[in-house]
Specification:
The protein is mainly alpha-helical. It is built from twelve helices and three strands. The chain has a single domain (2-306), classed as Up-down Bundle (Rhopdopsin 7-helix transmembrane proteins), CATH 1.20.1070. Its main location: membrane.
């Protein structure tokens, strides 16, 4: 019914991954489990970094905000897809779609920005340890996070404002499980989308500059680590830096592929996979990666789990 009436509706039809009802239910349940696991993990990180006095350094301060971003990012796309799949309706209103683009762009940009800040924090901690407390003072960390959140808000607003100017025609079918911007742009029936592409190019250039900054930070970090005489010191640095590097690499590589790869009328399974890899997987596995490779976090989590009453 929705397929027949989609041209007369103001919204869009999200096709998801399959037309098979059984597969739709299975995918919805998998997404639901992933959302619950990711939300629980990020909530644990947020809780312990807020309450435990051992986790008050800038690294954990940034990690807490990364978890807030991850939790928010998951909540933008996954619940709506689960609900529409279980209800056997892929319909999403125009307003919901634009809000999804707004918040997803904001949180994606914020994630890129905070990963850049976190790489700089690790650079200062490893390469300039004597100046760490001065460079990464509480006030400067607060300003850095304010810049992160502000930049996300500005980029999301600009991106969404340019998308609002697009006129759509024909079947408003999006071959994704959320309002993916490349798929939305494909539905434009005029050259209105050129403004959005211009904004996207500007944001991509800034994101590339952030990537270069992250690479430079890690070149200095690994150069310093390899000169350390103590194997224990090298292990300690690698245990905090390698998880961060993995998260950055996964997020950037999959999102770059998704946005630079030309959109097809019939997206392949690989394109769907990459969309999951940069939208759902990083926010879900970030808490696991950081907790498994960080002894302090593991110790605090064990304390939380073994205690019958966790007091502030």
């Amino acid at each position: 019914m929705i397929m027949e009436n989609i041209t007369t509706m103001s919204g869009f039809l999200l096709m998801g991954f399959s037309d098979n009802r059984e597969l739709q239910i299975l995918q919805a349940l998998l997404f639901l489990v992933t959302y619950l696991v990711g939300s629980a993990g990020n909530c644990i990180i947020i809780t312990i970094t807020t309450l435990d006095p051992q986790l008050k350094s800038p690294m954990y301060y940034f990690l807490k905000h990364l978890s807030i971003l991850d939790l928010s990012s998951l909540s933008v796309t996954v619940p709506q897809y689960v609900d529409s799949s279980l209800a056997r309706s892929g319909y999403i209103s125009y307003e919901q779609c634009m809000l999804q683009i707004l918040f997803f762009t904001c949180f994606a940009w914020d994630e890129m920005a905070i990963l850049t800040v976190m790489s700089y924090d690790r650079y200062v901690a490893v390469c300039l340890p004597l100046h760490y407390e001065v460079i990464m003072s509480p006030r400067k960390c607060t300003w850095a996070l304010a810049a992160v959140w502000l930049s996300g808000g500005v980029s999301g607003t600009l991106y969404t404002a340019s998308t609002l100017s697009i006129r759509f025609c024909g079947d408003r079918i999006i071959h994704q499980f959320f309002c993916d911007v490349p798929q939305v742009l494909k539905l434009s029936c005029s050259n209105d989308y050129l403004v959005t592409i211009g904004v996207a190019n500007i944001l991509s250039a800034v994101a590339f500059a952030c990537f270069i900054g992250i690479v430079i930070s890690y070149v200095h970090i690994f150069s310093t680590v390899l000169r350390m005489p103590s194997a224990e010191s090298r292990y300690k640095v690698f245990s905090t830096c390698l998880p961060h590097l993995f998260v950055v690499s996964l997020f950037l590589s999959t999102s770059t592929f998704a946005y630079l790869n030309p959109t097809a009328d019939s997206p392949t399974a690989l394109e769907f996979l990459f969309s999951i890899l940069y939208t759902v997987l990083p926010p879900t596995i970030n808490p696991v990666i950081y907790s498994l490779r960080n002894e302090t976090i593991k110790r605090v989590v064990r304390k939380l789990l073994s205690s019958t009453k966790f007091t502030v």
